[in-house]
Amino acid sequence: MVERTLVLVKPDGVQRQLVGRIVARYEERGLKIVGLKLVHVDRALAERHYAVHKGKPFFEGLVAFITSGPLVALALEAPNAIGLVRTMNGATKPAEAAPGTIRGDLAIEMGQNLVHASDSPESAATELAIWFAPGELLSFDREIDRWVLGPQS
Ligand code: UDP
Ligand code: MG
What we know:
With 153 residues, the protein is of the alpha+beta class.
């Protein structure tokens, strides 16, 4: 089933000048970018995004980190995009992330693990609505889709 998922290239990715390389991985895989913007989020939006973690010991540090500088928000579309992107990002702890994943290749510390991705259809719907107004997400065809997704697409 075609899904949309929310990805953040967190402030460490912007500061380390890895935005292009990280976005390129999703593009090269064949995911369609249907939304993209640079945002310096305020505390209120950060708290909404990470509401499931409110009250946990790492919450304050996480909010401070995510609001510390600009980040890139992406909406990606593909069949099974939610699981696909989680697999591409790798385990939350970069030390446990497999080589070939973004975190496994480019990160060391859990607090600086470069990327966020929605973890379920419910969180994808909630998070896409937090980060993008309805009109900011585009639907369009790509000529390459029959080569990426097959002749029926
Ligand atoms: N995090 C942290 N310490 C923890 C758990 C999580 O700093 O003990 C951070 C980490 O950056 C992670 C984010 O909080 O990416 C959200 O945690 P989650 O468990 O949702 O991991 P993710 O979905 O990002 O893999
Ligand atoms: Mg998460």
